[in-house]
Amino acid sequence: MSLFVTFEGGEGSGKSSALKLLDERLRREGYETVLTREPGGTPIAEQIRNVILDKANTKMDSRTEALLYAASRRQHLVEKVWPALKEGKLVLCDRYLDSSLAYQGGARGLGIDNVLNVNLFATEGTYPDLTLLFDIEPEIGLARIASNASREVNRLDLEKIEFHRGVRKTFLELAARYPDRYVIIDASKTLEEVVESAYHSIAARLK
Ligand code: TYD
After folding, report:
1. pLDDT tens track for 138-181
2. How buried is residue 52: exposed, middle or buried, by Cβ count under 10 Å (0-12/13-18/19+)?
3. 154 CB under 6 A from ligand 1?
4. What angle do CA 100, 158, 132 make, to 5 degrees?
C-alpha cells in the first residue's frame, strides 16, 4: 500500500533525526520505504537546492526563490516520488509543499494562495496523504541548532526570529486548513517520544 508522508516544521525541530529513526523502524517491520528530502532528492533537484541555499545569493528575489523550490519539487516528484508511490512504497519526505506555503507564502509574505497556485502547477495537485508537523517554539529550535555545531547553518537559518515565528504561525494555520492530512507533533518532547507519536500516526494510516 503506497503512502506519501511529509515531515514539516521549523528549524531545529528535530524532524530529520526523527525521520531517520522512523525509517529504520518501519523497515525493520517490513515496509518498503523511500527516505528522501526537499529541496533535492535527485541530482537535478539537488543542483537547484544548491542555488537556493547558497549563502552568497543574498540578492535572490522571493518569487525567484519560490519558483526554484517549486521547480526542484517537480523534478523530485517526477524522478522519485511518483515512481515509488506507483510501486506501492511508503515515501517519507523531509519537507514538501507546505514548507513553501509556510516559508515563502507566510513568512516571506508572498501569500499562501499565490504560492499554492505555483505549486499546484508544479505538482499537478499531488498532496501528501499525511503531513507530520514537528511543532516547536522558534527560540527553542534555534537554540538547539546553536548548540549543535556539527550541523551546517544555511542562509535561511540566519533569518531573524520574526521570520521563524511567521513560519510557525503559518504551519499552524495550514494544520487547521487541512485537518484530514495534518498531525501536529509536540517537538519539544524527547526524541524517543517524538518518534513514538510519529510512528503511531503513520501506522494508523497503514492499516
Ligand atoms: P535544510 O538544511 O534541509 O533544513 P532543515 O534541516 O530545517 O529541513 O534546508 C532547507 C531550508 O529550506 C529550510 O530552511 C526550509 C527552507 N525551505 C523553504 O523555504 N521552502 C521550501 O519549499 C522548502 C522545501 C524548504
Report:
1. 999 988 887 876 666 666 666 688 999 999 999 999 999 999 99
2. buried
3. yes
4. 40
User: Ligand 1 mean position to 98 CA, how many Å?
Assistant: 11
Q: Tell me the CA–centroid distance for residue 143 and ligand 1, in Å.
A: 17
List pLDDT tens digits, range 80-112. Answer: 999 999 999 999 999 999 999 999 999 999 999
What sign for the dihedral angle of Cα 71, 72, 73, 78?
positive
Which cell numbers in the block locate residue 38? 526537499
Cα–ligand 1 centroid distance for 155 (angstroms)? 10
pTM of the model: 0.94
Answer whether 108's CB lies under 8 Å from 161's CB: no
Strand partners, 163: none
- Verify whether ligand 1 is closer than 6 Å to residue 156 (CB atom): yes
Name which of 203, 62, 193 is nearest 136 in CA terms. 193
CB distance 131 to 93 below 8 Å: no
Cβ atoms < 10 Å from Cβ of 39: 25
- Residue 65 is which amino acid? E
Asked if 186 contacts 135 with a C-beta cutoff of 8 angstroms, the reply is yes
